Amino acid sequence: MGKYIFITGGVVSSLGKGVVSASLGLLLRASGVGVSFLKFDPYLNRDAGTMNPHQHGEVFVTEDGAETDLDLGHYERFADVTLGRRSNVTTGQIYGSVLDRERRGDYDGATVQVVPHVVDAIKEAIVRAEAPEADVILVELGGTVGDIEGMPFVEAIRQFMLERGKGDAVLLHLALLPGLPAGDRELKTKPAQHSAQKLRECGLQMDFLLCRSETPMPEEARRKLALHTNVKPDRVIEVPDVRLIYDVPEHLRRQGLDRLLCSRLGLAHREPDLAPWRKFAVAAASPRKIRIAAVGKYSGMADCYKSLGEALLHAAAANGAGLDLDWLDAEALEAGDAPALLAGHSGLVVPGGFGYRGAEGKMRAIRWAREGKVPYLGLCYGLQCAVVEFARNVCGAAGAMSAEWAGDMELPSSDCWVTLLDNQGRATPRGGTLRLGSQPCRLAPGSRALAAYGADLIEERHRHRYEVNPEKTAILERNGMAVSGRHPEKGLVEIVELPGDQWFVATQAHPEFKSRPLRPHPLFLSFLRAAIAWK
Length: 535
Ligand code: GLN
Hints:
This protein is of the alpha/beta class.
């Protein structure tokens, strides 16, 4: 049976609980402790799949095809673990399962209530998160303690901790210590104290208090917080702002958090060797930067494409460079002078996307890269745009489109280059009906993709509804765009590329989800190498 670390937040949301949980996962793994994760999201959506990334950040896709919260990306990247759908549970899922059971008659005539039925379903989800390799499961509760919608989860944590006992479960609370801009920015401890009180009202006593602040925490604040929150002073841990999130694990290690947690949970602990991680963190902060343009619809919000930014940064660091990633708004490229806006970048990425808005701007960018021989990496929608751009401007199909962009309009078959295949249908309901999760792909001999991956059968995660129209692949190939990756059984187009000296590769998958700081993704490594050489 695994042990549990619960992580809650207080005062405000978006404190970086995900990064702190992920950092703890990394530290514990490096200390010889196996870890797994569970993120509770108290919203009613069944999963993040139907949510606008503008509001909630990237939808992170797991190997088993779950559409999850972006924090799972932090967990996988920091702790170098692979998670699945059991690692992200929402209120919608909990209520869904309770209501299904009620209809089946499983409650045997009882009045179905939040306590005990909903809370029991949450406790079952906690137990289900156990994994054979995990000595410890880190359970992060989204939002802030005191939020109405989070209360059943807080109650479930209380009951679970009581049932498991002190040696098997510990509670960490992350709170903000604000510094008032008008004053001398002295860090205020009162909101954190109130947050501790709120927890106590719910029957929970935190074991560790993690303090998020702009500046390091003075000794006086630590002493005061320890006294008022009922936590030993060495268990009041500071988490000040850092240059890059990769510095957080080292910061926690220096305060002995991994050692203290292991001793509290009765787990063997060895001093973690963070040298490779530190080396990566230094490389990531390198002042010598490679300038890459990414064209998206949600520009100005790097969180919408979190894993892409990370994968590029991992690959840049491995190539000895920092990353200067410029987010360009697809609609600005449509309206303005695209080549002028793109000039000065050593590589272009068009990431995933949905709908028609911004497609023309993305294709203008791709044309700029293709004609100027600038390295290009297309991801999912970025492949579909590359195919349509090539159809229009090289194959002479001026009206080429994706069926997705035509909406309810029927496209003549000559114009339909990206399409819904019969077995995919126009899916209703919308949630969870895409081609999702890990899928195989066979790479063509002699291709750039094969050279990058170094293996001819690969697997990548997918999240899309549309496919390159199989009737058009011969025309693409005749005009010089190679299909260098296909699904081995279904024959679907997975990767296209332009042969010759230019690095121009687009994939129907989302390889960015599999990149890890210490194991950068081969396709990103190859792209970055080309971008550095191109410069
Ligand atoms: N909208 C496209 C599709 O559904 C691409 C999706 C994506 O980029 N993830 O096929």
